Amino acid sequence: MIDALVLAGGIPADGEPLYPLTQGKSKALLPVVGNPMAQWVLDALAASKQVRRAVVVGLDGGLRYPRELVYVPNHGSMLDNVHAGAQKILELDPRASHLLVISSDIPTAAGAQIDWVIEQTLTANDDFSYCVIERRTMEGLFPGSRRTYFRFRDKEVCGGDLAVISTRLFSMDAGIWQRLTAARKSRWRTVAIIGLDVLILFLLHRLTIDEAVQRASRRLNVRGRAINCPHPEVGMDVDKPFQLDIVEEFLRRRAAG
Question: Which terminal residue of the chain has fewer beta carbons within 10 Å of its beta carbon, N or C?
Fold first, then answer.
């Protein structure tokens, strides 16, 4: 079993689509069919057979979880929150080899789907495994969700909100986390890390998704993999009010059987 790092630090700013609903409060606490959005994610983790403790970054309490639940304060950016959560997990279990990173804004995710993602990584020796969902799969279940898609030579995908990451990437020796953190505010530093040739070939749709991941992985000196996920529920995040309407309708239908 592995520990889950739940990212719950996002606070919509004035002028952003969800601000009228959140009014300066955490997006993770936005009510969704009677529960805070993050509670749906914790319930899915609780139903998982592969997840042990949950470390929630960005909140200070108010959620339920049947196993060990730990809160870590908001550290600002997503990268900083991932790093802080990973350090907490290693503090709690220095032998942890991998961790699951999951966003708090995918309330439609279910325990069996989380298990499926983790099981894809059990026999691999990857440092970073990230879910992608094909456009036809996402729009087949959530038409009109208006996700952001990336077109490769072989498929068009959006990102899922689940990743399994090796804890070695958070050590000082790895250096990758420090490089990504330093580059996060500079487009050109980011391009320098992944390679201008990779970016150009991607923009020209000359790379398959596996080729793009392999090239970027070599640049970063990590073993990375894109998991083609058949479960659009793990990618249906809530960034806008109409997406909240979509997931609430879905959850009500699912509860009704």
Answer: C
